[in-house]
């Protein structure tokens, strides 16, 4: 059984430029190796549309469409139009989530009010269409939890989870999924190592966030979906289960959260 990478940006320009045969070459290689499915993630309208194109072209690839908290900063034609652009993409059969959306408070020179506006508008959209959401939460755990609680009907994934074990347990109780990236393989990353053990078996997911966050032993390189295996192996070890069991669990969970029937 192959792995399910629930979060990748294969259209990223670093991959397009530096990987042999670019984005489509990379996807072909991964699907021909250890990867069964990839969700390619949008962060703005342009790359959300590209995600849909990739999903159309490759059987194993699905698309998430949305506006990232950092990307919303540059939009100069108003939130209403920006949201309606995303809304138009939702009817495509291979669009399985709205994302990534959320909050990023890592840098100070960001308009937090605008981030909160786009986050809430896209949660509203998810509620309207019954869509799964993919949350980007960087240094914004408190506000992310607050917004999520405002929309009890909406469920989804906290991606590249960086919160505590306690927060992970709380999310599971609320019916949310928690996805781990290569950070769990970092030697000193005690928090994600603790959190990935705390997550309920039916709520855990794995991802790469390619081309970012390459796992050990590929740090410093461009990350690619195939490397999700290092993350899955590390979590299997930490949870005391076999790698095959980990692959089975994360595949089942991914298909359930995205509503994929195959
Ligand atoms: Ni991402």
The arrangement of helices and strands along the chain is: EHHEHEHEHEHEHEHEHH
Measured between the Cα atoms of the first and last residue, the distance is 14 Å
Ranges where pLDDT stays below 50 over 5 or more residues in a row are none
CATH-derived topology: TIM Barrel
Structural domain tally? 1
Radius of gyration: 17 Å
- Report the structural category: alpha/beta
Q: Could you characterize the architecture of this molecule?
A:
The protein is an alpha/beta fold and 262 residues long. It has an 8-stranded parallel sheet with strand order 1-2-3-4-5-6-7-8. The protein has one domain (3-258): TIM Barrel, CATH 3.20.20. Strand 5, helix 6 (141-150) and strand 6 form a beta-alpha-beta unit. It is globular. It is built from 10 helices and 8 strands. 44% of the residues lie in helices and 17% in strands. The protein has helices at residues 13-18, 22-31, 45-57, 79-89, 112-129, 141-150, 165-173, 190-198, 228-239, 243-258, and strands at residues 3-8, 35-41, 61-65, 95-104, 133-138, 156-158, 177-180, 204-206. Helix 3 (45-57) runs parallel beside helix 4 (79-89), helix 7 packs parallel to helix 8 and helix 9 (228-239) crosses helix 10. Nickel (II) ion (NI) is lined by residues 7, 9, 41, 100, 209.
Please specify the SSE layout and strand pairing.
Layout lengths: L2 E6 L4 H6 L3 H10 L3 E7 L3 H13 L3 E5 L13 H11 L5 E10 L7 H18 L3 E6 L2 H10 L5 E3 L6 H9 L3 E4 L9 H9 L5 E3 L21 H12 L3 H16 L4
Parallel strand pairs: 1-2, 2-3, 3-4, 4-5, 5-6, 6-7, 7-8
